Amino acid sequence: MLRDHKAVAYAIMRLALGMNIFGHGFFRILSGVGNFASGMAQGMDKGPLPHVLTLSFGYCIPWIELTVGLLIILGLFTRFALASGALLMVALTFGTTSVQNWNGAGTQLMYSFIFFAMLWLVEANTFSVDGLLSRRK
């Protein structure tokens, strides 16, 4: 089983992506969701989106990141988690481009590509909770 290099590579990349997204959420929660949400909304004030919308979304983002990241780390509901993470990137990119933060949008595009690639290659997700559950069937 360890000779399946594609599965090993997928598991390592899944762990790296999951830890990255989980870390975003975990440390934002640890340092105060309100601080993150307020700072994000303040940074978006120069754009056309309403403050209350960006503030509300800012309160949700860390919890979404925490959940999506944990699911990806575990390899549990992997397709759903990857699709959710990709859709989060779409929403973040919309906000980022609304304030013409092109560097931020470029970073989000890189994350979007990684989510795409991981979703595209999801059949290699054998070293995971999903893989374990499918082998038991």
Automatic annotation (TrEMBL):
Membrane topology value: Multi-pass membrane protein
Main location: membrane
Transmembrane segment boundaries: 49-73, 80-99, 111-133
Highest taxon of the lineage: Bacteria
Protein location: Membrane
Keyword Transferase belongs to the record: no
Gene Ontology annotations for the cellular component aspect, listed alphabetically: membrane
Keyword check for Transmembrane helix: yes
Pfam families hit by this protein: DoxX (PF07681)
Swiss-Prot/TrEMBL keywords: Membrane, Transmembrane, Transmembrane helix
InterPro entries documented for this protein: DoxX
Name under which the protein is recorded: Thiosulfate dehydrogenase [quinone] large subunit
Native source species: Terriglobus roseus
Upper lineage: Bacteria, Pseudomonadati, Acidobacteriota, Terriglobia, Terriglobales
